[in-house]
Amino acid sequence: MSEQLGFWRLAAARPEACAVVEADGSRVTRGALLGRANAIARLLRAQGLQRGDRVVGVVANEGAALALVLACQQIGAYYVPINTALTTGEVAYILGDAAPVVAVASVRCAEMLTAAADEAGLPAQRRFALGETSGLRDLLAESAARPHGPVEDRSPGSYLGYTSGTTGRPKGVLRKLPEGDPDDVFAAGARWQLGMFGVEPLGDGVHLVTSPLSHTAVSGLAVTSLHFGHTIVLMERFDAETVLRLVEAERVTTTHMVPTQMHRLLRLPREVREQYDVSSMRNLIHGAGPCSEEVKRGVIDWFGEVVWEYYGATEAAGTAISAREWLERPGSVGRPQPGAEVRIVDAAGQVVPTGESGAVYLRMGAHAFEYRGDEEKTRARRLGDFITVGDLGWLDEDGYLYLLGRSAEVIVSGGVNVYPAEVEAAILTHPDVEDVGVIGVPDPEWGERVAAVVQARADSGLAGDERGPTQALQDYLAGRVARYKVPRVVTVVAALPRSANGKLRKHLLPALTQR
Questions:
Q1: Domain 2-224 in CATH: superfamily?
Q2: Which of 45, 53, 117, 406 has the greatest number of C-beta atoms within 10 Å?
Q3: How do residues 129-186 score in pLDDT, each as one tens digit?
Q4: 334-407: CATH number
Q5: pTM of the prediction?
């Protein structure tokens, strides 16, 4: 069946089919997207790109960004998406580390790329924009003059994702390029990736992009959906009610969300939620962070048993779980994905018995990688054919994984471990809390004390509570979590520092914490 799939093959067979619905509602056919991807591929080769070279993208949610990925995927290039929420210095670091042949920005990201490229020393002739803007070459205009027909000497490319850098410098996760015909390679990849969530190919599939394409998982799922023959609907930025409007209007069947977005959907007034028909949704996939049981149950009650969760990392495949399985095992993130394996390991590197906690290790297998240019970091994270990203957890007797948190984030207060994810989940049930991050801050008596940084709802009275936000939350949490887990100090901020894919950048929270 894989011969039926693969975007280039599908676009040649049905060029008139809709491939992309832009954020402004305009539609791009498969044929038009294919022609643009082919022309961009030729332009990239004209810049000297060889198999294994890198192309950096600092892009917004637009169809041209998908065409750029499709171009890289058929000429053996590594596509490096850069989080648009990073600072100029962070973007410059990745540019210097990736050493791209070409860097491309959406017009709205042009200033960021220009400043970062100046800092990294990327030559001006290697800087492009997806449109006309000062100081950058116009990739679309220059490629438009090149042939739009099938590209010669095709070979499959891949993503070179950089870890989020929530606790330090981001690291490039480099894998060997696949071999074979790009259509076959990406058709097989789509069957593996989307198949684990029960997504069906072809038919009336419509995939809604709610998060920035500058994140590897978001871009990867969108392009994989194109290889599955599905239409992509782009949102310029996340807005809870707009999500519902698009689900109804475009009859969306699949989407990918982070728990924060699900939380915000549930916070819509009931009368707003009930205005929209969401019955078309067949696969609501979420990951990229812990999800509270209350939020998970709320979304399942609303959308039905169409919710799928996954756990993994840029470095390795992990686990997946359906709504039905989760309802039987609340709190689990599932069993290993096809071809994956999970082990729980103690400090001595030994596998622990079932039910005991330890470091979570994922088998790399076909996903074997190295941190680009850093053999020492690669070795430090590996244990044979397994890799850890620092998460802690345990396995039940049926092999379902339960996460406790990250070893680097565990708070040790008075000799007792406090897992921030558990406290965050409890705080998020407060009706006035929009978002929260829990960390440990130094304490002369306890070693560390629990601190919370809270984003309150715009119309809430939490910040103005006469008891103060700390006492107000402490009173609320009484009986919900153990006393030693209750934050000793609570700071209310306008917004928490989250990356483009919704991950909380916890290393920035200490500076926001009220001492």
A1: ANL, N-terminal domain (3.40.50.12780)
A2: 117
A3: 999 999 999 999 999 999 999 999 999 999 998 875 444 567 787 788 989 999 999 9
A4: 2.30.38.10
A5: 0.81
